[in-house]
């Protein structure tokens, strides 16, 4: 468990509504249409499948497989390169974009099992941790 997951009351989400902490665990929060069951991340205002407007929050598993990836070798000065961006397919039927850390870029493969980890990505002006997500190679369950 990361330090961020233990400090659930004082964090600031990278973007409101995309993650939350409960019982010391972080979860990605998607949206599910109550009319047709479509699941999204992030949650939309209107369902793209049926145009329904009755969506509910749904916890996403955070474990999935790499759908595709790219290795970024040139970026702005704020980001050390190279780094890997992945699209991850989650079992709920959504595809999530995030950075993959914890392995060399040459080791990344389509179909690779990964899991989300919540980490501090910055500090706000009050000194509170700003929390976002990254993917790590999955550990055995």
Quick structural gist:
By secondary structure, this protein is mainly beta. The chain has one helix spanning about 5; strands at about 10-15, 20, 25-35, 40, 55-60, 65-70, 85-90, 95-100, 115-125, 130-135.
What does this structure look like?
- 3% of the residues lie in helices and 47% in strands.
- It has 141 residues and is mainly β.
- The strands form two sheets. A six-stranded mixed β-sheet has the order 1-10-9-6-7-8. Strands 2, 3, 4 and 5 form a four-stranded antiparallel β-sheet that branches.
- The model is unreliable at 1-8 (pLDDT under 50).
List keywords for this structure.
single chain; 141 residues; mainly beta; six-stranded mixed sheet; four-stranded antiparallel sheet; globular; disordered N terminus
The radius of gyration is 16 Å
Helical content band: under 10%
Shape: globular
Report the end-to-end length measured between terminal Cα atoms. 14 Å
Largest sheet: 6 strands, mixed
Task: Enumerate how many helices there are, as a single number.
Answer: 1
Strand coverage percent: over 45%
The structural domain count equals 1
- Extract low-pLDDT stretches: 1-8
* SSE series: HEEEEEEEEEE
The chain-level mean pLDDT equals 89
Number of strands: 10
Structural class: mainly beta
What strand order characterises the main sheet?
A: 1-10-9-6-7-8
